[in-house]
Every structure is written in C-alpha cells, then in structure tokens.
C-alpha cells in the first residue's frame, strides 16, 4: 500500500502502527524527508508532486491511504488551503486511478459537506464528491472528529484548548452527535490500515464508531 501525508499526525501514526504489523508492506510518498519510526518495515519515497504519477506507478500499490491535509491558517490563504486539501488530493487520486490502483482511503473530517458554509468542511465535502466520481473499486472515507495526538512543529492554540476540553465535551455528545467526539489519531491510523485489507467493493463512509470498529479488527 502507499501512504501520502506521512509528515502529518495520522500519517505518522500509520507508520508507527506498522511496528505491530510486520506483515503489512508500506511505501510512503512525501514532498520532504520524514523520519521512519524505528522498527517499522517500510520504504520512503521523496518526490515533488509533479513526480507523483511516476512514483505511484513505480510503487505499484493495490491501495492508497491519503492523509494529506492542512488548515487555512497554516496554508496562509483560502486558495493555498484549497490547493492542498482539494487539488493535491484529487491530483494524487487521479494518478492512482491511472496507475490501476483499485482502492483509495481518504482521511477527511466529520461534518464534511460540499454545500457547507465553513470553508474547511466545504472543501472536504467537495473532494469527497470528486473522489466518488473517479469510481475506484473501493473508496473508504474516514470522517473522524477532533483528532487527539501530538503534532510536531504545529501551533494550533484553539485546537489544543479543544483537546484539553474534549474529555468533558465528549461526555455531552450522545446519539447522532457521537460522531463529533474526539478520537485518537492512532485509532484513525489503525482503521485506515485495516480498511486496505477489506476487499468488498463500493463506497464506504466511516464515522467515529465505524473507525473504532475497523481499528479493533486490525488488532484482532
């Protein structure tokens, strides 16, 4: 399988999870060097996005895990944010489709909606819709709530405050609102790995509860 977004929180957790699952073969494709966790059996390919189509073809994966993502604040503008979370994701997906990849796993966000008012969730919803039109044999869309986990060199004061408050807030979210609860990035990573092993075709959208169940299947 191929991982793109290795330098982010979920991508790093995917690489770390390999230490417990040595039978899984992973190649990470990144725009810059990223440390490979000790004990993880994997390869790292570094290439500018212009070279991604060739890199995807050369690695020959059956499945791609896409953990690409930023925020408007990090990107600096709405256009720069869209360039990563929509354009670059779709560019990768089209390269994967052209290379014959049958399964695409996208780490999206709870509340993703192409008609949403919030830029972040609208762009997430738009790229989900675009991926659906590519008609992979299997498309898995993970929509986690607030991700818990350490982010290297990433200052997000509001998100840090939200994580501190999440144990209390989570207790107040019941029923359909459970999907907005926080969730560990390691759980999301484990779910993404497990979903690449599941062969049923179709489009599958996973909220927090579904993500947890998939992660447990990997552990089993």
Cα distance spanning the termini: 20 Å
- Distinct helical segment count: 8
Using the CA coordinates, give the radius of gyration: 16 Å
H/E series: EHEEHEHHEHEEHEHEH
| CATH structural fold name | Rossmann fold
- The CATH H-level superfamily is NAD(P)-binding Rossmann-like Domain
Mean pLDDT: 89
Low-confidence stretches: none
Kindly report the spatial arrangement of strands forming the biggest sheet: 3-2-1-4-5-6-9
Binned strand content: 15-25%
CATH class annotation? Alpha Beta
In which range does the helix fraction lie?
40-55%
Short précis:
This protein is α/β, with parallel strands linked by helices and 220 residues long. It is built from 8 helices and 9 strands. The strands form 2 sheets. The protein has a 7-stranded parallel beta sheet with strand order 3-2-1-4-5-6-9, with helices on both faces. The protein has a two-stranded parallel sheet with strand order 7-8.
